[in-house]
Design brief:
heterodimer, A: alpha/beta, TIM Barrel, 8-stranded parallel beta sheet, 11 strands, B: alpha/beta, 6-stranded parallel beta sheet, 3-stranded mixed beta sheet, 38% helix
Chain lengths: 326, 324
């Protein structure tokens, strides 16, 4: 049974003595430090994010998207005609993203994200997972001035995503994860079908195991649509989609990710109760097919609470394994 | 002073913070300046803001929310039982302290009445009293005090109801209750309606709720059941798609329609605004139509904000000539 994170980690220090990226960026913006010192702070924080995960028993690390301002705007670095714009609310959160405008046909324009990933990979002592927003979320959150249909947009986007995935594979990604909150919340069956078809095609061509992270929505009513996707596995948000516990208990293909710690709630999940639910799934799915993680990015919590929630993921895993292999 | 019969102009609530005020707020937070100094400067800037709104020709004014940072945190700091958790990222390198309800909530007393009274005392034109709605306060806070979201939202609603009653007693003819979170969870629209109903219960002032950046089509037609007199809706940002939604049936309430985009640097032309109003008037009975920006203007520079408002007022003037 592996443990991992979903997407981003908090940028603020969780304990005294750690690099304070917020203050460093403020110092840079105010002209008090130069680009070299800013870059050094980023690299220190990237290393810290890896150490934080290792210290809390995470086995498949994430890079924590330390340099990302939001989920989608970094794509503008590598995807042509995907231009970040004004701030818009990010789903149901009191956080924002720069809403991109699609100003022309999407195409690969660079490899900055993969290069950044490679640098973090070089520091990682354990397998490192790469994470990108999925094509459907990237398109849904953008203002589209180019494409006349979602199908044509998805066709181009998937061709670009295949190249992004390839670049991250070459950069040493152990596994690739596409974050798809927009898909998790999609109620239109036709749009879901188009998105899943596109993601399935990416799964078939991916040179590394490809995972899907579905959060912020209840996918249980249409989980059957996910069962045949040619993916390494899917991660579910069990806070938003609690009925998935029952759906998964009936059996589910691939390596299932259990988002069993709510990263948008300060309250702590009960370790005994959660471990008991995981054990029920173990009987059906087996230890090799379960990953444990928070339901979404830990950035929605203050840094100290985020670390405590991550600790909880490790604790649940230890509790389950202790009882399975006493 | 009464509102014009056709297309009264207003704004959603917040204005850009003047640089000197923002700097002083920062110094107060660092303990380098006093709260009294900040209050005095905030009043001075509010006075200037009221005068500027009159100059540009707005009909229904706001105090500008210069004393507020985050719209939820502001109220949480004034309600017993809330604490501020650690910093959570808002965007990029911007953070805010997210509230957490640690204990059952209790009002400490009036929260916005003095600010309203001060602003209304500066002008003969009506000033909107501004509250953040119970659903939004609940949704954007951590909860450790209530067993469920409904209980949390309704507790906040009772506190806001008492505040709304106080505002009405202080002379507020318009009370706006902002609910930007309401349209982001269509499955909870019934809770939003219930909680807002607690706030507006028994009020005689005209009540408004502002909703933005969500899936309005997914909360239609339930949105028409919101217990307020006026829906204030973002529209420009989404190419006025909300008009297609409202066109599905009768519009039984006043609608304040956003005709300038607060997330764009580009200043709309008066012609664009006029065209938007004429288009909207085909869906919303003209005498039920108010005109304003999509959302609070605090995201824009002062120059951009005023340029947009000047274009909006001119566009309204032209539309009134055509339809008046």
């Amino acid at each position: 049974m592996e443990t991992t994170i979903i997407g981003a980690m908090p940028k603020l220090p969780s304990s005294p003595g750690e690099v304070n990226l917020r203050r460093t960026i403020q110092d840079f913006d105010a002209g008090r430090i130069g680009p070299g010192e800013l870059e050094a702070a980023y690299r220190t924080k990237e290393a810290q994010v890896l150490m934080d995960q290792v210290a809390r028993g995470i086995t498949v690390l994430g890079d924590g998207q330390v340099r990302w301002d939001d989920l989608v705007s970094p794509l503008g670095l590598d995807v042509a005609n995907y231009v970040p714009g004004g701030l818009v609310r990010f789903f149901t959160n009191n956080t924002y993203y720069r809403r991109p405008t699609i100003t022309g046909r999407l195409a690969l324009a660079g490899s900055t994200l993969a290069a950044r990933f490679a640098r973090v990979r070089a520091q990682a002592s354990r397998p490192l997972k790469a994470a990108l927003p999925g094509p459907y979320t990237a398109l849904t959150l953008a203002l589209d001035q180019q494409y006349t249909s979602m199908d044509s947009a998805l066709a181009d986007a998937c061709a670009v995503w295949a190249l992004l995935i390839e670049a991250h594979a070459e950069a040493g990604a152990h596994v690739m994860e596409l974050e798809e909150p927009a898909l998790a919340r999609e109620r239109d069956a036709g749009r879901r079908r188009a998105a899943l078809q596109a993601i399935g095609a990416l799964g078939k061509s991916s040179p590394v195991p490809l995972r899907l992270a579905l959060y912020f929505g209840d996918v249980a009513p249409w989980a059957v649509e996910l069962a045949d996707l040619p993916l390494h596995g899917i991660s579910f948000d069990l806070a938003q989609s609690p009925r998935m516990w029952d759906v998964l208990a009936e059996g589910f293909p691939g390596v299932v990710g259990l988002g069993l710690v709510d990263a948008r709630d300060l309250r702590f999940e009960d370790v005994d109760e959660t471990a008991a639910r995981v054990r029920l799934l173990l009987k059906r799915l087996g230890t090799e097919r379960l990953w444990l993680h928070p339901n979404t990015s830990l950035e929605y919590l203050p840094a100290d609470a985020a670390m405590a929630k991550l600790e909880l993921v490790g604790e649940i895993r230890r509790r389950v394994e202790r009882e399975v292999h006493p | 002073m009464t509102l014009p019969d056709l297309f009264p102009t207003t704004t959603v609530g917040s204005f850009p913070k003047p640089a000197d005020l923002a700097q002083l707020r920062s110094r107060v937070q660092q303990g380098k300046a006093g709260v009294d100094e900040l209050d005095a400067l905030t009043r001075e800037k509010t006075r200037e803001l009221i005068a500027a709104q009159e100059r540009v020709g707005l009909d229904l004014l706001v105090h500008g929310e210069l004393e507020r940072g985050d719209m939820v945190t502001y109220f949480a700091e004034l309600i017993e039982g809330f604490e501020l958790a650690g910093f959570v990222r808002s965007y990029g390198n911007r953070y805010y302290r997210k509230p957490v309800a640690r204990r059952p909530l209790v009002a400490r007393g009036p929260m916005t009445v003095e600010t309203f009274r001060f602003a209304q005392g500066l002008t003969d034109r009506p000033v909107k009293a501004m509250l953040t709605g119970p659903y939004t306060i609940m949704d954007w806070s951590f909860n450790e005090a209530y067993p469920d979201r409904r209980g949390f939202a309704l507790a906040v609603a009772e506190i806001l109801h008492d505040e709304a009653v106080r505002l009405e007693a202080a002379g507020a003819r318009f009370i706006q209750i902002d609910e930007p979170a309401l349209s982001t969870r269509p499955e909870e629209i019934a809770l939003g309606i219930e909680a807002l109903g607690v706030v507006t219960r028994g009020l005689t002032a005209r009540t408004i709720t502002h909703i933005c950046y969500g899936a309005i089509d997914e909360v239609y037609p339930e949105i028409l059941e919101l217990p307020v007199d006026q829906l204030d809706l973002e529209a420009k940002n989404n190419g006025f798609a909300v008009l297609d939604v409202l066109a599905r049936g009768p519009v039984p309430k006043e609608v304040a329609l956003g005709v300038v985009d607060v997330h764009s640097h580009r200043v709309e032309s008066a012609e664009e605004v006029e065209a938007a109003i004429l288009r909207a008037a085909e869906v919303i009975p003209p005498r039920q139509l108010f005109v304003d920006p999509d959302c609070g203007l605090k995201t824009r520079t002062e120059a951009e904000a005023w340029a947009k408002l000047e274009a909006m007022v001119e566009g309204v003037r032209r539309a009134r000539l055509k339809l008046g």
